Structures are given as C-alpha cells and as structure tokens.
Amino acid sequence: YFAGCDSWLFDLAVTVNETDLSNPDQANHTWLANVTGTAGTDVIDMSGNTALLSDAIKTEMASSKRGVYVDGGSGNDVITGTGYADNFRNGSGSSKIDGGAQDSDSRTNNKDRFDIQLGTKAEVDAVQVLKSDDPAYEWMVTYGLGSTQKDYLRNIEGVSIFSNDGGSRWVPLAIEVNVVDPESPDLLNQSHF
Length: 193
Description:
The protein is mainly beta and 193 residues long. The protein contains two helices and 13 strands, in the order E-E-E-H-E-E-E-E-E-H-E-E-E-E-E.
C-alpha cells in the first residue's frame, strides 16, 4: 500500500532469484538467475545494464557467458533476454520474446531456447512454429486445438515442446556452426565443419 493511494497493489512485481556466487557449486548452474513474471502483462528486459540484476551477477555473466531463465507467467508479456544463453517460458497469453544478443560459450546449452510445457502429447503435436505474421519477429508459435494464443520469437535458436504424459519435440530455429582449428593435426577427422 502506498501513502496517498487508495488501492492495494498485488502481484505487480517481477521476481528475480540470483545464484549465490559464493557457492562453489554455482559453476555447474546453467543460469545465473531465475526471473518470474506476474499473472498480468509484464515488460521484462534483461538486456544490457538491466536494473533487474546485481552488478556481481552481470560481471559473472560476462565472464562465464551464462544467462538467465525467464518464466513470463501468464499475460501478454514483452521479454528481452541477456547477451548470453537464456531460456524462456510463457504461460497463457500471447507474448513477444527476444532472446537478445548471443555471446555464449561452447557449452551444450549455449542457445536461447523457448520452452513450452503442455498437458498432453496431442497438445504437443498441435503446436506449430511458423514464419511470423509480425514483421518485428522471426517466428510465431501457435497452439492449435482452437487456441488463439500466439507467441512471437526473435533471436531464439530453438523451441522445446514437452508434455506431462511424455510427448516431446525439439524445433531448431538456427544452425550451429563450429569453427575448425586450422592448426589441428587431424583436419580430416574433424566432426563439425
């Protein structure tokens, strides 16, 4: 409750839980912070010098190239990720998600990923990832089965779709390119070109 205001404010703040950098195990964490949106419409901007993260986390992010996990909650959110590998999740509502710049390391999880968790395999099968009808975004996710929900994506390298009953799909949105070391003594046996 704010002085001079006649109404109470509920569930209006985005929640940020940062990794404890003093914990020696933190180096094994995929993300440096978990960000949770509200049940309403949020604007969550994790890019650049965001006020949502401490200076210590931003410094560790630049050093380790690890990003954040953002669960927008429900609502028609606008979310922008960090310059590193982030994961995004959205509940009900049509959101616009920008993975942000990509300056990640070569770890397995070095992609910006959009996660969709649904109830059944049939719902997983109904999801489509299409060329966006909004020119500001590259991709559009539709949910089929009579749903009007659409999520818009840009700078996202893949979509992971899974259900509570074991259905799952991976939809790649970018091709990974690995640089071959020209000084390698065994160029003929390099697995990635």
